[in-house]
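Review form for a predicted model. The reviewer records the input and the model, then writes brief findings.
Reviewer: anonymous (R2)
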Amino acid sequence: MERGVIISPYFTYDGHSLHFPGLVGIEPHHLRHYLLYWDKIEYPNNRFIHIASSPEIAALEQAGLLQRTVVELPGFSGNIGSAYIISQAMAAQKLNQSAAGNWTVAQCGPQLVLPSTLSTNVASLEIELFNVLPSPSADIPLDSIIKFKEKRHDELVAFRSYMDTIYLDISSSGDLPRAKTVTIEKLERALRDLNNAAEESWATKLLSGFKIELNVPNILDNAVKGAGVAAMMGAPISLGAALGAVGGVIKVELSTAPRVNGLPRELKDFAYICSVQKELKS
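Model under review:
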């Protein structure tokens, strides 16, 4: 199943207002990250704040890899920057009506920010990786990334598969400590292979971290309660053995996060939060 990501410009949030430092739009390294790890990109637009497509965005539109839906926003007051996250939430509702479970909201920053009128805070399982995921730096041409995806399809699919396995095991396994150990070992191998492929293909790369908010219904009432939850969470788990000097870490914990209202139940990974944490040079 193809997967799509609904993106927004990079912003910071002080608890009241959104602020847009530097380039207002999609940062080049963020665009490359999304292009590499997702099949389709939605970059919604609105008439309150219109951001024209950059040449790179336009090129991906023409190639059929990115779309820009114009979202008709209701009137609102307050911080004008909220138009971006309202557009993002409304696009998530609309796209998942026609392709249920295929589209995930993504932002870059320390936390997920969604309009309270279109989302509900829910208990979630948060899986976070630090300093492990190779991403193209801003100077890598888009065509090079597209060719990488075609050539290294197996490595990308393996990584995605093992990430899926983590939360499937969490929601179904009766022996979480063992399931966690086996899954993490497979994930380490997938990340090692992905990093090796990137080293062979790009002169420069970034190491990214990301956090996924997972909707696991009745998590505390099922097989993961008690010692199971403690076994999955506990201390962060080092991934250094697989990644050498990278020294990555995975952390699993219970959390609370806003989830866009009306998303299909089968959409487990309802939010993706990325951050570029480290730069590597050849």
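Findings: The chain is about 35% helix and 25% strand.
Further findings: Confidence is low (pLDDT under 50) at residues 222-227, 241-246.
Recommendation: see findings above.
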